[in-house]
């Protein structure tokens, strides 16, 4: 061998000795998986994007930094400025906090790995954004609401989203409205699943009830509202006491009104009380008449006694009753006494006046005395 | 005016005993029947006048006639009642072989009505009190008049004062019956027992009728 060749070979070997072993390139690093929590973001949601890489090469790979960038779904967390060396067959995960700033659709934020020996890996990560909220509907409510009457309202919450919703609860709201329970917890709702909540609503006045559904998508809280107008109307099933077969009897100190009260409704009327209303004045012995409970289609006789002025031609008969919840109702039936009105004045009640009794006793004593005297003188 | 007949109220035995010495005279009994009739006429006029108040203005003229008619009927009723009682006593006493003229029977019956004058006065006062307590509406049709009249009868019947008036009537009737017993004893020459039966049967039945009416069973 010529000396020149020997020198060249020696230099090459020396150079190789100083530079160390040969480093693996971008081709040996692969992104093995990526995931985001929650799996489907809504606009404005914040999620956690986790990316895993693996070194498939035979040599370690020196990585300078890892970062994420893109539009629509933007990173909120910092990049990894000094990643270091990734050994052969080793994996490493990178976690980024991202936020969906764009509209709906699939966005591709780019994951970038910069290697020490130049070169980089760019890997787009698909992130889906969908704004579909949970659906909320009323599946059961009374035909009509009534003031102070408790009614059951059933709410169904469905999840049309492609990912699960967690912590689902329904909160009824509204002024002049009492709701029991004050909120209902449904919990997690899988995609295309639904849950129901039943509320007892007691409106004090006509109002608007808002059922707010609150749920979480990952760490993000969302709400959806359902408006239910509360308007009062006649309940088709409610008790309906009707007065029939009325007979007005004139008495020494006023009127005696007798008749039948019948429940023409579909629900029981409880604590039914019948009394004469203004301008009549209730009098003994039947100032009021307590019927009690009237089941549907039941009838009961009643009797009230009252006084009224001579110019009164109609007297209201007031029926007071309650429903199963204790709510009080009144119904009034006008009873015509015109044409037979004959009001009396001056008498206190139907009892014998004391002065009259005294006079009768004195007369009796006098007459008995006269008779006795006549027989003694016979 | 001779008022010795007032003795019949407290001493009917001796009064009738003395009357038997004279011929039957119906003057005083007729006067008693007339007074009773007049008192009854006052009560009837009050009632009729109250009824007139129910009538509409155009029918008020008829109402005045009604008041007059009621008064006349009451006066006639006084005499009629006297005769009826007398005849009934006379007929019943025939069953006990009573002896004496019908005129004598009518005479003692008429004297026996004397307590009814006081009863009538008290009754008229009570009637006035009952009527004064009533406020009547104006009836505008025959149907309303009928309805009000029906109610009026019911009201008066159930009024406590009417019940007191009924008791007073019974008391004075008992007093009259006592006088009639003495009267029939002398007028028809009956024993005390037969005289009591003669008077007691019709008067007792009438008192039973009054009690039933008072109790509201009629």
Q: Could you characterize the architecture of this molecule?
A:
The complex is a heterodimer of chains A (378) and B (218). Chain A is mainly beta and 378 residues long. Chain A has three domains: 20-129, Immunoglobulins (Immunoglobulin-like); 135-230, Immunoglobulins (Immunoglobulin-like, Sandwich), CATH 2.60.40.10; 241-336, Gamma-adaptin ear (GAE) domain (Immunoglobulin-like). Chain A is built from two helices and 27 strands. Chain A has helices at residues 3-19, 354-376; strands at residues 29-37, 40-41, 46-55, 61-69, 73-75, 84-86, 91-100, 105-107, 110-115, 120-124, 127-129, 135-140, 151-158, 165-173, 177-180, 184-189, 194-203, 207-217, 220-230, 241-251, 254-263, 269-276, 281-282, 289-294, 299-307, 314-322, 328-336. In chain A, the strands form seven sheets. In chain A, strands 1-3-7-5 form a four-stranded antiparallel sheet, with no helix packed on it. A four-stranded antiparallel sheet of chain A has the order 6-4-9-10, with no helix packed on it. In chain A, strands 12-13-17-15 form a four-stranded antiparallel sheet, with no helix packed on it. Chain B is an all-alpha fold. Chain B has one domain. Helices cover 78% and strands 0% of the residues of chain B. Chain B has eight helices and no strands. Chain B has helices at residues 12-19, 27-52, 60-95, 102-112, 114-132, 142-158, 160-187, 192-215. In chain B, α7 runs antiparallel to α8. The longest helix of chain B has 36 residues, at 60-95.
């Amino acid at each position: 061998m010529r000396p020149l060749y020997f020198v060249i070979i020696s230099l090459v070997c020396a150079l190789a000795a100083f530079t160390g072993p040969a480093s693996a390139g971008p081709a040996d690093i692969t992104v093995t998986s990526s995931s985001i929590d929650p799996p489907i973001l809504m606009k404005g949601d914040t999620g956690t994007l986790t990316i895993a890489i693996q070194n498939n090469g035979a040599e370690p790979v020196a990585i300078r930094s890892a970062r994420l960038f893109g539009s629509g779904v933007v990173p909120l967390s910092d990049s990894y400025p000094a990643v270091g060396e990734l050994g052969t067959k080793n994996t490493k995960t990178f976690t980024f906090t991202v936020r969906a700033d764009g509209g709906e659709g699939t966005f591709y934020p780019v994951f970038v790995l910069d290697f020490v020996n130049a070169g980089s890996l760019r890997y787009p990560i698909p992130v889906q954004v969908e704004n579909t909220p949970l659906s909320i509907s009323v599946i059961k409510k009374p035909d009509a609401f009534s003031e102070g009457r408790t009614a059951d309202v059933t709410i169904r919450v469905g999840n049309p989203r492609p990912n699960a919703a967690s912590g689902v609860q329904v909160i009824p709201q509204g002024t002049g409205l009492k709701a029991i329970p004050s909120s209902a917890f449904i919990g997690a709702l899988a995609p295309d699943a639904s849950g129901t909540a039943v509320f007892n609503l007691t409106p004090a006045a006509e109002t608007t009830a808002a059922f707010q559904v609150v749920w979480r998508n990952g760490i993000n809280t969302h709400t959806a509202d359902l408006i239910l107008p509360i308007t009062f109307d006649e309940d088709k099933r409610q008790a309906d006491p009707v007065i029939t077969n009325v007979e007005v009897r004139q008495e020494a100190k006023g009127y005696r009104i007798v008749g039948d009260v019948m429940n023409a409704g579909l629900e029981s009327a409880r604590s039914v009380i019948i009394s004469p209303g203004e301008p009549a004045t209730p009098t003994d012995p039947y100032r009021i008449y307590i019927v009690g409970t009237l089941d549907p289609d039941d009838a009961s006789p009643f009797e009230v006694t009252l006084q009224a002025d001579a110019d009164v031609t109609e007297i209201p008969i007031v029926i007071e009753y309650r429903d199963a919840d204790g709510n009080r109702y009144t119904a009034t039936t006008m009873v015509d006494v015109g044409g037979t009105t004959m009001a009396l004045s001056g008498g206190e009640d139907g009892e014998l006046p004391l002065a009259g009794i005294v006079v009768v006793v004195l007369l009796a004593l006098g007459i008995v005395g006269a008779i006795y005297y006549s027989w003694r003188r016979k | 005016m001779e008022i010795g007949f007032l003795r019949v109220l407290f001493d009917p035995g001796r009064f009738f005993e003395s009357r038997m010495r004279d011929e039957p005279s119906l003057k005083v009994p007729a006067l008693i029947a007339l007074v009773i009739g007049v008192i009854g006429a006052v009560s009837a006029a009050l009632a009729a006048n109250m009824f007139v108040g129910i009538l509409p203005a155009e029918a008020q003229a008829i109402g005045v006639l009604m008041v007059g008619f009621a008064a006349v009927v009451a006066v006639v009723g006084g005499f009629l009642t006297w005769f009826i009682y007398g005849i009934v006593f006379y007929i019943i006493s025939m069953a006990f072989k009573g002896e004496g003229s019908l005129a004598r029977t009518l005479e003692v019956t008429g004297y026996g009505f004397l307590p009814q004058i006081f009863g009538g006065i008290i009754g008229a006062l009570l009637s006035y009190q009952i009527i004064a307590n009533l406020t009547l509406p104006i009836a505008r049709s025959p149907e309303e008049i009928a309805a009000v009249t029906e109610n009026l009868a019911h009201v008066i019947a159930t009024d406590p004062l009417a019940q007191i008036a009924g008791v007073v009537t019974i008391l004075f009737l008992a007093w009259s019956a006592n006088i009639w017993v003495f009267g029939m004893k002398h007028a028809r020459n009956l024993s005390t027992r037969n005289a009591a039966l003669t008077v007691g049967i019709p008067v007792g039945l009438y008192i039973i009728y009054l009690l039933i009416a008072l109790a509201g069973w009629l």
